[in-house]
Amino acid sequence: MGIRDFLSEKIQKVNVIGKKEIDENLWMKCTSCGEVNYHREVAKSLNTCPKCGKHFIISAMEKINIIVDKGSFQEIDSNLRSLDPLKFRDSKKYPDRVKAAIKKTKMNDAFLSGIGRINGRPVHIGAYEFSFLGGSMGSVVGEKIVRLIESAIDNNQHVITLSCSGGARMQESILSLMQMAKTSAALVKLRKAGLAHISMLTDPTTGGVTASYAMLGDVNIAEPGSLICFAGPRVIEQTIRQTLPEGFQRAEFLLEHGMVDMVLPRSEWKGTLSNLLDFFG
Ligand SMILES: [Zn+2]
């Protein structure tokens, strides 16, 4: 019996006896290639699979930490919180959903923004937290992106955004869709100030986020294997009743078709961003 089979069997056994949590502290099975890896090996590879390179979803803070110099990140606008102007309710009240997300993520909304340094050079940077209501863009996220851009202009610094989002936040309806225009307009001001926006598209970047500022980077960089789209492949297939080509809307497909400028693994994020910042001056 090979080591892989042995480990798979071991995990199955442990699952059966209901001690999954204990075992998951040591091993994890890759959702892409099925290999069983040590958790610490995966962590060392910046939360990618050491065998196939699959990039697992990580938190906003983890993404920023990959890029900025250690200890240099200072958060801004952390206190902004959603209101409930529409008194929206689906199976739960919107404020209750927000409250639960705050408790789960220890963040006030789905976007973490601030100022950090990359190889000593200051930069404005922000990232989505996907576990906060699917990284959806509501009024607070839109406002935080705009404030990040405006602060960058005031401080004469470039902007890096790391998107990871299910799109506009449906519970905020039109107020959420309005953030698409608002964030895109802020980027025009950034461009007029002669500053760059580098847009990092991580898995998944979809809906109103893709359809606004996220595709408006001076350089658009995708994470390997990430889904980047407006409507997802299942919705399109159901609508046009046709099978889509292999890899449709994945980062590599988009690179081939001219929709993104590069596909970059996490291990190369910091070095490449540092070079790009030098290039933009
Ligand atoms: Zn793998």
Q: Can you walk through the features of this model?
A:
The chain has 281 residues and is of the alpha/beta class. It has two domains: 1-56, no CATH class; 57-280, 2-enoyl-CoA Hydratase, Chain A, domain 1 (Alpha-Beta Complex). It has helices at 3-16, 20-24, 39-44, 60-67, 94-105, 139-155, 173-192, 207-210, 233-240, 251-256, 269-280, and strands at 27-29, 36-38, 74-75, 111-118, 121-128, 159-165, 197-205, 219-222, 262-263. A seven-stranded mixed sheet has the order 3-4-5-6-7-8-9, sandwiched between helices. A two-stranded antiparallel sheet has the order 1-2. Strand 4 (111-118) and strand 5 (121-128) form a beta hairpin. The chain is globular. Zinc ion binds next to loops.
Short structural summary:
The protein is of the alpha/beta class and 281 residues long.
Question: How big is the Rg?
Answer: 20 Å
Shape: globular
Mean pLDDT: 92
CATH homologous superfamily designation of the largest domain: 2-enoyl-CoA Hydratase, Chain A, domain 1
Strand order of the largest sheet: 3-4-5-6-7-8-9
Bound molecules: zinc ion
Low-confidence stretches: 9-22
Could you estimate the helical fraction of the residues in percent?
25-40%
Q: Count of helices?
A: 11
Biggest sheet features:
7 strands, mixed
Q: Termini, distance in Å?
A: 57 Å
| Number of structural units classed as domains | 2
